[in-house]
Automatic annotation (TrEMBL):
<feature type="active site" description="Proton acceptor">
    <location>
        <position position="319"/>
    </location>
</feature>
<keyword id="KW-0328">Glycosyltransferase</keyword>
<comment type="pathway">
    <text>Nucleoside biosynthesis; alpha-ribazole biosynthesis; alpha-ribazole from 5,6-dimethylbenzimidazole: step 1/2.</text>
</comment>
<comment type="function">
    <text>Catalyzes the synthesis of alpha-ribazole-5'-phosphate from nicotinate mononucleotide (NAMN) and 5,6-dimethylbenzimidazole (DMB).</text>
</comment>
<keyword id="KW-0808">Transferase</keyword>
<dbReference type="GO" id="GO:0009236">
    <property type="term" value="P:cobalamin biosynthetic process"/>
</dbReference>
<keyword id="KW-0169">Cobalamin biosynthesis</keyword>
<dbReference type="InterPro" id="IPR017846">
    <property type="entry name" value="Nict_dMeBzImd_PRibTrfase_bact"/>
</dbReference>
<dbReference type="Pfam" id="PF02277">
    <property type="entry name" value="DBI_PRT"/>
</dbReference>
<dbReference type="GO" id="GO:0008939">
    <property type="term" value="F:nicotinate-nucleotide-dimethylbenzimidazole phosphoribosyltransferase activity"/>
</dbReference>
<comment type="similarity">
    <text>Belongs to the CobT family.</text>
</comment>
<dbReference type="InterPro" id="IPR023195">
    <property type="entry name" value="Nict_dMeBzImd_PRibTrfase_N"/>
</dbReference>
<protein>
    <recommendedName>
        <fullName>Nicotinate-nucleotide--dimethylbenzimidazole phosphoribosyltransferase</fullName>
        <ecNumber>2.4.2.21</ecNumber>
    </recommendedName>
</protein>
<dbReference type="InterPro" id="IPR003200">
    <property type="entry name" value="Nict_dMeBzImd_PRibTrfase"/>
</dbReference>
<dbReference type="InterPro" id="IPR036087">
    <property type="entry name" value="Nict_dMeBzImd_PRibTrfase_sf"/>
</dbReference>
Length: 350
């Protein structure tokens, strides 16, 4: 019997460019050579489109780390076992991970969303229960989950984003934790972009040659098994996704619907963001890409999205680490836009 389900529809407005002339004029009239603030200028334009051209401000930027486990991990495609996902979530809650250090440094709130790690953890004020199961099914043998489960994941994300929006948050960071999730993300990238699986598969957490060969086999097998889902992003997510990837895709769609910016972290988060753009192309306007990670595939993926990442530090950490590191650059873009004098005000004549 197949479940009946209602897939949430996300109503996303394109970020109108009708104020662009004013925003560009403001940027160009600041006391600097034209274009001298480089990529901070295009970032300021995007943030002014998002938050208004008069005095755009970030409010309570909040990092959401979506966690989930993957059936394929039993195939030896990672350096670690699935148990490490839950152990790292515990570490997030105890304050000991890279994301804790970087969120602290960047003054960013942090919430962890359990979308389906193997074993649930005891309640904690930072931990949200969005569990869709105890790890996905292995994608090379069957679908990771049902489409009804994808729909539930989207509904959970929409509820969370609604609550954050009510509390005044206007920017989320997108991070993830899931041992084995680069296998799922690589398969999804290949299915969504049509790029060859070779271009989409990297060494994830740092696997050796033997595990890499196995990962290639698994992705090839998964793509072959689920080829009939290609063209339908929700079916592709059900076939190849992870619970945390579904949660992130839902969060992007819900945030864009609420006119919130989304600061995207690394490879896996970018794949989730790409899936969101396949479902609702207008979501692309709300995405800010924090960095190009060291994971093979991320550069091609960013290129596919015509994205210019802010940083390139060869990170391959996940957890939202690159997004937390990039947040100060968003503040810098707004600081120059809101605080710099114009040529006229400063009496500077070029
Ligand atoms: O963000 C990235 O680009 C990235 C690249 C490689 C690995 N990761 C992290 O490593 C884990 C996935 O690696 P793996 O080898 O277990 O598939 C997962 O928890 C991610 O957060 C993250
Ligand atoms: C230790 C460890 C920490 C991580 N953080 C994100 N992915 C990870 C993978 C491993 C293995």
């Amino acid at each position: 019997m197949t479940d009946t389900f209602v897939l949430p529809h996300f109503s996303i407005a394109r970020l109108a460019g009708d104020r662009d002339d004013d925003i560009r004029a403001r940027i160009d009239s600041r006391t600097k050579p034209p274009g001298a603030l480089g990529q901070l200028e295009s970032l300021a334009l995007q943030l002014a489109r998002l938050y208004g051209s008069e005095s755009p401000q970030l409010q309570q930027p909040t990092m959401l780390v979506f966690a989930g486990d993957h059936g394929v991990t039993n195939e030896g495609v990672s350096i670690a076992s699935s148990a490490v996902t839950g152990q790292m979530v515990r570490n997030f809650l105890d304050g000991g991970a890279s994301i804790n250090a970087f969120c602290g440094q960047s003054d960013m709130a942090l919430r962890i969303v359990d979308c389906g790690i193997l074993e649930p953890l005891p309640a904690h004020p930072m931990l949200l229960d969005h569990r869709l199961g105890a790890g996905t099914e292995p994608i090379h043998l069957t679908a990771a989950m049902s489409e009804a489960t994808v729909a539930r994941g989207f509904a959970n994300a929409r509820q969370l984003i609604g609550e954050l929006c009510k509390a005044g948050v206007n920017l989320i960071g997108l991070g993830e934790m899931g041992i084995g999730n680069t296998t799922s993300a690589s398969a999804l990238m290949a299915a969504l972009t049509g790029l060859s699986s070779d271009e989409c598969i990297g060494r994830g957490s740092g696997i050796d040659d033997k595990a890499f060969l196995r990962k290639q086999e698994i992705v090839t097998q998964a793509l072959k098994r689920h080829v009939e889902t290609f063209g339908n992003p929700v079916r592709m997510l059900a076939a190849l996704g992870g619970f945390e990837i579904v949660g992130m895709t839902g969060a992007v769609l819900a945030a864009a619907e609420r006119r919130m910016g989304v600061l995207v972290d690394g490879f896996i988060t970018t794949v989730a963001a790409l899936a969101a753009c396949h479902i609702e192309p207008a979501a692309r306007d709300y995405l800010i890409f924090a960095h190009c990670s060291g994971e093979k595939g991320h550069a091609a993926l960013l290129n596919h999205l015509s994205a210019e990442p802010l940083l390139s530090l060869n990170l391959r950490m996940g957890e939202g680490s690159g997004a937390a590191l990039a947040l100060p650059l968003l503040r810098s873009a707004l600081a120059f836009y809101n605080e710099m004098a114009s040529f006229e005000q400063a009496g500077v004549v070029v």
